[in-house]
Amino acid sequence: MSKYTILFNSQSDNRKGEAEAKQLDALLNGDDLTYIDVHNQDKKTVISGLQVDEKLIIAGGDGTLNHFINDTDGMDIRNEVYFYPTGTGNDFLASVGEEKGKLIPLNSFLENLPTVTVNGKDYKFINGVGYGIDGYCCEVGDKIRETSDKPINYTSIAIKGLLFHFKPVNAKVTVDGKVHRFKKVWLAPTMFGRFYGGGMIPTPDQKREDGTISTMVYHGCGKLKALMLFPSIFKGEHVKHNEVVTVFKGHHVRVEFDRPTALQIDGETIIGVTSYTAKI
Questions:
Q1: CA-to-CA distance for 135 and 270, rounded, in angstroms?
Q2: CA-derived radius of gyration, the chain
Q3: How many CB atoms lie within 10 A of CB 198?
Q4: Where is the domain boundary, 96, 111, 126?
Q5: Would you say residue 88 has pLDDT above 70?
Q6: How many domains does the chain have?
Q7: What angle do CA 95, 96, 102 make, to 5 degrees?
Q8: Between these two residues, 163 and 278, which has the higher pLDDT value?
Q9: Which is nearest to 197 in space by CA: 91, 67, 272, 84?
Q10: Which end of the chain is more exposed for a tag (fewer CB within 10 A), N or C?
Q11: CB-based burial of residue 117 (10 Å sphere; 0-12 exposed, 13-18 middle, 19+ buried)?
Q12: Which of 52, 86, 111 finishes a domain?
C-alpha cells in the first residue's frame, strides 16, 4: 500500500476541484490517501511535512499546476510528484501527449522551466505566456466567472474581441538581442510547450526538450482577416500564412506593446501589462 498526499484547489473549475480530485478514490483504491485543499494553504509547509516515501499528487488544471510550480519555487522536492488532470481542458496534458484518467509523473517536467518577468515579478511557466487577444479573453473570462458558475465560452469571447472590443497594438519584439518591430499585432505569445489557451498551437515546432522558447507574432492584418485565420491556430496551420505570422525561437525574449494589455501565464491573468521578458 502506497501513501499519497493529494493537493487540490476547491475553487478551481467552478468550485468542482474537490469532487474531481476525489475521483482518485477509485483509481487508487486500497492506497492511503490524504486530501488537502490548498486554496488557502501554504504548499511549502505541506510538502516539508511529508515523509520521503510519501507520494505527492497535484490534482487540477493548468492554473493549479502553475500555482504549484511558483509556490514551491526553490524547494528541493524529493518526493515522487504526479499530476492528475481534471477540469474541461488541459494544455499541459495535450503538450506531453497524455490522456485524462491516469497519473502523470511530474518530476522531470519541473526541471529547467522558463521564467517570465512581468511588472518586475518573476514567474515560472510550463505551457506558455499569452499576450494580446488571448490575454484579453482570460480577462473577460475572469470577470464572467465572478458572477456565473456556467462554463466560459472562450471562443465566443475571442470572436467578439476580434470583431469589436480588442484593438491591435504595435509591438517591439527582441529575440536574443535582435530587435523586430510589428504593427497591428493581435497575438504575441511565448511558448515552452506546444499548447495553450484551450488547445491553440501557436508555435507547432516548439519542443520543450530543446531548451528553447518560441514566440509567435500574429500581425499586419485587419480584423476580418484576423478572424478568418484565427481558427487555424487550433491546428497549427496559421504558420503557413507568413505574411501575417512570424515565429522566433531563442533563449531570451522581450515583448513590448505600445499600450497596456492583459497577459496570461498558463491561464492565470495579469491585467494592464506593457511588456514581458521570457528566458530559459
A1: 8
A2: 19
A3: 19
A4: 111
A5: no
A6: 2
A7: 120
A8: 278
A9: 91
A10: N
A11: middle
A12: 111
CB-based burial of residue 195 (10 Å sphere; 0-12 exposed, 13-18 middle, 19+ buried)?
buried
Cell of 239: 504558420
Residues in the chain: 280
Of 29, 159, 24, the closest CA to residue 101 belongs to 24
CB 82 within 8 A of CB 21: no
In 194-250, where do the E strands start and end?
Answer: 213-218, 245-250
Provide the mean pLDDT of the chain.
Answer: 91
What residue has cell string 515560472?
124
Q: Are residues 247 and 133 in the same domain?
A: yes
Tell me if residue 28 falls in helix, strand or coil: coil
pLDDT tens per residue, range 163-194: 888 999 999 999 999 999 999 999 999 999 99
Average pLDDT over residues 26-51: 90
Same domain, 133 and 148: yes
pLDDT at residue 150 greater than cutoff 80:
no
Q: Can you spell out the DSSP letters for 92-136? A: HHHHTT--TTS-EE-GGGGSS--EEEETTEEEE-SSEEEEBHHHH
